[in-house]
Please model this.
Amino acid sequence: MDPHPPVLRTIARERPAPELGEFLRSRRDRITPADVGVSSVGRRRVPGLRREELARLAGVSMTYLTRLEQGQSQNASDAVIDALARALRLDDDEHAHLRALARPRSAAARRPRKQEQPHRGASQLLHAMGVPAVLLGRFTDILDWNSAGHLLMAGHLESDAPSRPSERPNHLRMLFLDRHTRDLYADWAEEAALAVASLRYVAARFVDDRHLAELVGDLSLSSPDFAQLWAGHMVRLCTSGSKRFRHPVVGDVTLGYEVLHLPEGDGQRILAFSAAPGSAASAAVELLQPR
Model:
């Protein structure tokens, strides 16, 4: 019996190339020949496009596509990446993800990182906000939160938990493994899928990070829901939207959210919630503010 499930072998490899191959295969699998006008002849062993069919649609050689999927070519041109994205009908987020996987950063840029620390300016902004907000690390560690953000997302945890690096809450771990957090989201399945797709997007830039490998490995073993979503290779850059909460204090409330990605480009971002002035949701947010 293989002691390392495929989802763990994928993330634990030292090179990012297998991620590229698996992403391309997952996108090929979701497109049928009929979707792109390819005639299907004979018995098919794959549900979607064959590799040679993708190569023909993208206008690249079969040999080159094979080398690209196997990580033997890490200098794909913009033209090749764009052609593959068009052939696979990738959206903007998937297109950017493909580019990040096809052009892995140098080994020096992927060296092991020190323990993540919140950006001081981001923390200052966070605590100056009059709305619930949290500062997320590259892999969804909660690096800081203001009082309203703490009470909205994790009032059952100690307020100073983010200040203790060894005990920091992690939004993904909470979402899949913490009963209170799971009950908090009225649309939990949608929230879980979005969170995993967002991690996929970020992970392409930090594929060799040990903390990422540990997070994905632990969650894959502990949560079949996470393992299934991670294996689906869905990708999304999370920027804005709305979330429906079933909050133990303020009740059912729907809040808009914005994700403010920091310009440093290291994956830290502020997640801030708001509601229309004068609305019932706005009144609920006021109840979370410190008195």
